[in-house]
Design a protein that fits this description.
The protein is of the alpha+beta class. The chain is 44% helix and 9% strand. Helix 13 (335-347) packs parallel to helix 15. The longest helix is centred in the middle third of the chain and has 26 residues, at 278-303.
Length: 529
């Protein structure tokens, strides 16, 4: 490889080439993965004039297999007229810039124009929220980047604000000019010319393997795109969108394929994928896709999870996918054991350490006998019975809640106010159908000087509908439960002690102790421990 030249391009020029499909993504690129914080930091760096790093473009002479870059595609094999190239490095930065520029609903970036913001401890950029949406000192970055934006019009409006001072005018003007010119920033672009897709991929992998820009799974995905063209864009990408409630990522699906195809995840080889005909990998993918479908039916049917929100660790699914792929499903006789394994693996955080090493250990054991029973045998000493102390966690979401919701759905638990409402959905924010409810209201406990550690504890959490939650005021359960007639059977399904003496504030500690005991007992019965 000759030393490729580096040229200076403005961000505006690069974005224009993206808009005109003269700069696109190769199949080997990963999806947009930046978190909002990274997007904000990019704009902050540009505003301050800090370096944002080089970009890497592969200048190809004909179209190869590509992937959508903001909805755009180029047909493979097409002769490229006036084409700039494939973006090998810089996708995250350009996509972030484009989404803010276009006022994407997920990236409503605001600029705080108040000149003395630094003295008051404020930053230049914030995401739009209810507290700043109507504040005249905050302005949409997307509006400022438009050619139609008029700085003088903004200044005439802000002069009417009570906090405005005449000496602010020049400083506000200069800041807005700087923001307007943000996309004129010159970035170094390494332009690499080759007719070889594999050579371009080699550069992409080497460029990203030396730092922390790509995960190991992202690199496997890039290698796979070269090994089996179109498998990533036409098949794996399709499955990534097949079950929207579960949101499987491309790297996760790649790990599933690698596990099915090779029986391991860790590799010292330069290329993770085995030599041999492409048909072998394609067949392994078909098996992995079937296995994933069986696991989805297991999750929604046996475990009774409706979405990925309740999956404590996607890594735990990989051995189940392999078993289902090799056996064409999870046997009905093994489904309860598979549920026990998955839920306990979550509570015990079995996949929180050296994940790939542990998965490889399990896959090696499964080679001896490809079954759920072998999986349980390989891990049972780590997945012991639940005890009352396991329910001392303060987390509202997490593996204990996931286990609890699976229990409620399995025993057909119902809302305390609406018997027709099954407690089998995911628990989300305050407008959701189901909510986490403090059996002893937090405001009441705080009023009596109880600490947050004993207020926000799983022993005090129950699941009810929003409608039911609104009926509870800052009273002890012994009082408000008189207004809500709940059969003891439904209380028992949520492991609430039916001894009403424990529902008084003076017995709160006794209530927690008994509730945790009941939770552990019910969970072990549910899991068959």
């Amino acid at each position: 490889m000759n030393n490729p030249p580096t040229v200076q391009r403005s961000l505006n020029e690069l974005l224009e080439r993206v808009d005109n499909q003269r700069l696109i993504l190769p199949e080997i690129q990963r999806d947009f993965v930046w978190q909002p914080r990274s997007v904000m930091l990019l704009f902050d760096s540009l505003f301050r004039g800090l370096p944002i790093g080089h970009m890497l473009v592969w200048k190809a002479k004909k179209a190869e297999v590509g992937k959508p870059f903001r909805g755009q595609k180029v047909k493979p094999g097409t002769l490229l007229d006036n084409f700039y190239g494939y973006l090998l490095d810089g996708q995250q930065r350009l996509t972030a810039l484009a989404r803010v520029r276009e006022n994407d609903d997920d990236y409503p970036l605001m600029f705080y124009t108040y000149p003395d913001r630094a003295k008051d401890g404020y930053e230049p950029f914030y995401w739009q929220r209810s507290w700043n949406k109507s504040n005249p000192w905050f302005i949409q970055v997307a509006d400022v980047l438009k050619n139609s934006f008029n700085i003088m019009s903004y200044l005439s409006r802000i002069k009417n604000d009570e906090d405005y001072e005449p000496e602010f005018e020049r400083r506000i003007h200069d800041d807005l000019v700087k923001l307007q010119r943000l996309l004129e920033y010159q970035v170094g672009v390494i332009e690499f010319e080759t007719d070889s897709y594999s050579e371009a991929t080699e550069l992409f992998i080497r460029f990203n393997a030396t730092g922390k820009r790509l995960s190991r799974s992202d690199l496997w995905l890039a290698e796979l795109a070269v090994k089996v063209p179109r498998l990533v864009t036409e098949h794996i990408h399709r499955v990534a969108q097949k079950w929207p409630n579960f949101g499987f990522t491309m790297p996760f699906l790649t790990q599933c394929l690698l596990a099915v195809c090779t029986g391991r995840l860790k590799t010292k080889a330069r290329n993770a994928w085995p030599d041999g005909p492409d048909a072998d990998i394609k067949e392994a993918w078909r098996a992995a896709e079937r296995g994933l479908g069986h696991v989805i039916r297991f999750l929604t049917g046996t475990v009774k999870w409706k979405s990925a929100d309740l999956i404590p660790s996607f890594n735990a699914l990989i051995p189940l996918v392999v078993i289902a792929a090799k056996n064409d499903g999870i046997a009905a006789s093994d489904s309860a054991l598979a549920r026990r394994w998955l839920l306990l693996a979550g509570v015990r955080q079995h996949f929180s350490g050296a994940v790939h090493t542990e998965i490889d250990r399990l896959l090696l054991r499964l080679n001896e006998s490809m079954s759920v029973r072998q999986l349980w045998k390989a891990t049972s000493r780590y997945l012991h019975r639940l005890k009352a102390r396991d329910f001392e966690t303060s987390r509202i979401s997490g593996p204990v809640t996931s286990l609890y919701l699976s229990m409620l759905a399995d025993c057909d638990a119902r809302d305390w106010c609406d018997p027709d409402c099954r407690l089998d959905g995911t628990v989300q924010g305050h407008n959701a159908e189901l909510q986490i409810h403090h059996f002893f209201p937090g405001s009441l406990l705080r009023k009596h000087n109880r600490g947050e550690d004993v207020i926000n504890t799983f022993g005090n959490y129950t699941v009810v509908s929003k409608h039911c939650n609104l009926k509870v005021s800052a009273e002890e359960p012994a009082t408000y439960m008189k207004r809500i007639t709940v059969p003891d059977k439904q209380l028992e399904k949520q492991c609430i002690p039916t001894d009403r003496d424990l529902w008084h504030l003076g017995r709160y500690d006794d209530f927690l102790k008994e509730r945790r005991r009941l939770l552990a007992e019910a969970a072990n019965n549910f899991l068959g421990c």
